[in-house]
Write a structure and sequence with these properties.
heterodimer, A: Transcription Regulator spoIIAA, 2 domains, 11 helices, 4 strands, B: alpha/beta, Rossmann fold, six-stranded mixed sheet, 24% strand
Amino acid sequence: MTVSDGTLAFSGDLGIDSVAGLPHDLGDASRIDISDVGHLDTAGAWFVLDCKRRLRRQDEIPVEGASWAQRQILDAVSQNMPPEDSPPPQRAGLAERIERFGRATVGFARIAVELTGFLGQVVATMGGIVMHPRRLRITSLVHHMQDTGLNAVPIVVLMSFLIGVVLAFQGAAQLRQFGAEVFVVDLIAIAVLRELGILLTAIIVAGRSGSAFTAAIGSMKMREEVDAMRTLGLDPIAILVVPRVLALMLMLPVLGFLADVAGLLGGAMMAWIELGVSPAVFQSRLVANTDVWHFLVGIIKAPFFALIVGVIGCYEGLKVGGNADSLGRLTSTSVVVAIFMVIVVDAIFSIFFAIVGV
Amino acid sequence: MARDDDSIIKVRGLKKSFGTHVVHEGLDLDVRRGEIIGIVGGSGTGKSVLLQQIVGLLKPDAGRIEVFGESVRDTSPDEYRRLRRRWGVMFQDGALFSSLTVRQNVEAPMREQLHLPDDLRETLAGIKVRMVGLPENAQDKYPSELSGGMRKRAGFARAIALDPEIVFLDEPTAGLDPIGAAAFDRLIGQLQSALGLTVFMVTHDLDSLHAICDRVAVLAEKRVLAVGTMAEMLKIDHPWVREYFHGPRARAALGPDATDEVG
């Protein structure tokens, strides 16, 4: 690229590989000559036309020496040049940030309203099924019970057993200072039965099944299967959502119970090894000192947690749009929101039971 | 048949089977530089499979495929990379990356293959998006927000992002309304002459075959049964070819005169 006698002359190949390296300084030219250019592609044509635009004077600057093929490319590109004074992208100022924050808040409130509406729809559909039990999809229900319940047993039991072990171990270290080792039984029993067993089970199920619900329903939504159901007069809530939510509500108490048993076993084992509390002592102290209400408080919460995890998982699945990105995003949202809501509701239950006095 | 030296794609003795199902056997095909060739054939005759083998997505069982005089099969990864830059592929329904905007989709091949400053890349991608006739406000939209026709245009823009010498189009007009399909045909024709492209097009659209294809290749009986202009196709006496080019749809597309004079 050279400028001499008012002529901007290019030579060699002018293509997408070379335009980035060309100088920006054009000097002062009144005509452009490309007769020495070998291969010219759209990027090269853009560069020539951009030079022409930047050199603009009173009269049009001619581009000379183009072959027929080069003329074709120049014409095609010149009709599609970017608009000349495109405004630079604006940096987000304080006002925009506040606006974004406001929109996010309103969006959050709207989601809460929608989610409540969806919960109502699911409960109403369930009510309809109670009135007409034949509408219940038994096969689907059993399938989901196996998937969310039976298949989750090993991980739930293992996790809970380990939690029992950890509690006994940590509790023993503290209680030994007061010579109150035997209270480790009460510690384990109350912590596992009342809170940890069911809470951690619900969190595992949210990660395991809630995300699976979102992904399964979301990919059906993406392939328009859900729309197809609606046109066939099938209710996606009755077919897709209710069996999943119901299966979870039936299985989570069972999983919670297994988690309780495993947690107590783990605790008892550690108490025996670490503190010498024999299984017989552990058992008699457990029966004598632990009110059955501790167990009931835990198990009562299970169906509510199941409802939260199931409804949020299905709701996020039905919100999936046309692209793969939204499926991934909503799956992770579903898990995060479900776990968060489970903990919030657990806190509310704690307050409730404290007031009631059990 | 084309002389060997002006063939940009040369396929010789291609064989491909999936399990016991033989798709191609002894398939020969030449594509000349600068032409638009239409590949037709019944469902399951392996039109898309042929396309995928030429661009190296599928490996043929036997035979030779040369593009730009180099064998696609026996290239090193580096050579394949270099070769791949010289062609662009548009898949059915665009196959756009759903998490990127239209312009980012067009920028994607530039980003991978070249080291360009961001603003230059954006400008060049913008030119390509405008070239395929998408409105200015479509540049920052996501594929899911576009209609089927616009997605195809965006896919075409991505295929020509690096100014390839060959573009492979898989059913470019399928699923478009007649007006949209005709507009897409015109677009292919315009860009082909403006950019000097060679176009390899798998299609079922008799209107596009008639309107823009220089030659047509018919795939049947596991090979290329016939290659030639539309006028030559009409004279071929083979049951499937006759059925295809003389059927009621063909008559509508080509006009009654074209089919009657030989029929």
